[in-house]
Amino acid sequence: MKILVTGASGHLGGNLVRRLLKNNQLVKVLLRPESNNEAVQNLDVEKYYGDLRNENAVLEAMRGCDRVYHCGAKISTQNGNSRFLKTLYDCNVIGTIHILRAARQYGVSRVVVTSSDSAVGYNPPDVADENSPVYPFYPFFPYGTTKVCVEHECLKAFADGLDVVIATCCAIVGPKNMLI
């Protein structure tokens, strides 16, 4: 089985790649050439260079893969100007749409898409649980809004028969983390 990992240059994706290799999986990574790709530099992975915003690059990277872990995203806690917001949307939402389309085209068995607790939002003073309403649409936090859009795209793909899992992550800390 060959597995595509996006976002492999990041903390989560890099650790995931190392775990998959430890479990003797064949791994292919989609990397942006302008990113710091040290996380996978000396690993036995097939490297494909491209951008999630380019559907042809995603199709080429996914060719021959049976499973996908989509960890790639633009992360930001800032608001920014309209150009920045378009980049954020294009990387996160359009990039995910490209992943889902390619997975359907190639008959990928499962797509795992990482999301964020930012998609849930903040509802003080209540403690949130699985039944809590979602309040992500803050005008000052567009990243969370893009992650809500990502989750909606995944749910639509799932309803159309694609095996999609959304992994909602929060404050990931672990090996090779800059904070440790």
Automatic annotation (TrEMBL):
NAD-dependent epimerase/dehydratase domain ranges (all copies): 3-176
Any single Gene Ontology cellular-component annotation: cytoplasm
Pfam families registered for this protein in UniProt: Epimerase
Superkingdom: Bacteria
InterPro entries, per database record: Epimerase_deHydtase, NAD(P)-bd_dom_sf, NAD(P)-dependent_oxidoreduct
One function term, GO molecular function aspect: aldehyde dehydrogenase (NAD+) activity
Protein name: NAD-dependent epimerase/dehydratase
